[in-house]
Amino acid sequence: MKKLSGIGASSGIAIAKAYRLEEPDLTVSRKNIQNPAEETERFEKAVENAKQELKVIRDNANEKLGADKAAIFEAHLLVLNDPELLNPVKDKIKNEAVNAEFAMRETADQFIAMFESMDNEYMRERAADIRDVTKRVIAHLLGVQIPNPSLINEEVIIVAEDLTPSDTAQLNKSYVKAFTTDIGGRTSHSAIMARSLEIPAVVGTKEASANIENGITVIVDGIDGQVVIDPTAETIAFYEEKKKQYE
């Protein structure tokens, strides 16, 4: 048995087996290209595909979580329509004759660094939005499938390095009993989503994904910000009672 401490982002207690939400490999490398116009077209198509996905996620969020949460994805769509982000990518493709995914990564990293360096916690969390949106575009450019948490069909606790807002919006609370992440804070969109879904969440554990294996029993205590890995029968009984008291 092992205990991790984090930030209780959404109250409640859940006991279930772990489901690791693995990120695909989105490593990009710089490549010189012969036809910048063709590469720009490839980039625009990836952006368009990402927009179509986000519209589906937005509509689902609107149905399940309400208009205020769906507005998160309206904001993501605005990012994908923002010339401040898109034009530098196209300029980089044209002027440096580099591949679209490299140009996207370089440009996005500059924006992410800018947001992360801000004093305001809310603005710092917006870096996650840029990361979420650009990850989706890069996945299309690389031909990589982003995991779809909506396909989970058994009771689990999700374990991840981080959950993007679109990951969280696709969680089915009938099956996903809680989640825990290595990074994040109370004002992150995933934390806000967890509170809307009314599922317990502990974020900012720093090492959940390194310590929790698929299928192992996990307890997420969103009240006190604790995660218990492979608990004893006695510990499970204690938390079942605490859960009953909380409810």
Brief overview:
It is built from nine helices and eight strands.
How helical, in percent, are the residues? 40-55%
Give the topology string: H per helix, E per strand.
EEEHHHHHEHEHEHEEH
Uncertain runs: none
First-to-last CA distance:
25 Å
For the largest beta-sheet, the strand count, sense and barrel status come to:
8 strands, mixed
Computed CA radius of gyration, to the nearest angstrom: 19 Å
The structural class is: alpha/beta
The proportion of strand residues reads 15-25%
> Could you tell me the mean pLDDT?
91
Structure write-up:
By secondary structure, the protein is α/β, with parallel strands linked by helices. 52% of the residues lie in helices and 16% in strands. It is built from nine helices and eight strands. Strand 4, helix 6 and strand 5 form a beta-alpha-beta unit. It is elongated and about 65 Å long. The model has no long low-confidence stretch (mean pLDDT 91).
Architecture blueprint of SSEs:
Layout: E1 2-5, E2 7-10, E3 13-20, H1 36-65, H2 67-79, H3 83-96, H4 100-116, H5 121-142, E4 156-160, H6 165-169, E5 176-181, H7 189-197, E6 201-203, H8 208-211, E7 217-221, E8 226-229, H9 233-246
Parallel strand pairs: 3-4, 4-5, 5-6
Antiparallel strand pairs: 1-8, 2-6, 3-7, 7-8
Helix pairs in contact: 1-2, 1-3, 1-5, 3-4, 4-5
